[in-house]
Design goal:
The protein is mostly helical. The protein has eight helices and no strands.
């Protein structure tokens, strides 16, 4: 699955989210990492939480986060509707910001909004259905 944003995609989102500073931090990191979603996520995770935790063999904090995100949003019809609404109007900063705020508050925890921005930008790029099917347990990817 494509875990990369183009520089043009990043620039469009920078313009769109110019008034939301957590997104700007995420987009600056994405630009520095040449659009690499996983590298950007891990850099922001380390900035926010210190060191990246040691995971079981074959796992990374990125993989575990995708699993948790899947568990939280793939059955959430309200979130799917919000993503669909954004996809129908991708120039809407309030809709995109709303998705970021929603993901940042999942599972009763507060996820750094810059990290949530990375997750949402990747999610809207690949699409909800693709994300949910791709991350299904026992999917050989």
């Amino acid at each position: 699955m494509d875990e990369q944003l183009t520089l043009a995609e990043i620039e469009r989102k920078q313009d769109l989210l110019q008034d939301y500073s957590p997104a700007q931090r995420a987009l600056n990191v994405l630009q520095a990492e040449e659009g690499d979603i996983q590298a950007s996520f891990e850099k922001l995770w380390a900035e926010t939480n210190g060191t990246i935790p040691t995971m079981a063999e074959g796992q990374s904090i990125w993989e575990v986060t995708k699993e948790v995100l899947r568990d939280e949003i793939c059955g959430d019809e309200g979130f799917k509707a919000k993503v669909k609404e954004y996809n129908n109007n991708p120039a809407s900063a309030p809709l995109l910001t709303g998705l970021i705020v929603y993901v940042a508050s999942l599972a009763g925890a507060t996820l750094n909004p810059a990290i949530a921005t990375i997750l949402v930008l990747w999610l809207v790029k690949v699409g909800m259905e693709v994300f949910c099917r791709y991350t299904e347990p026992n999917n050989p990817n």
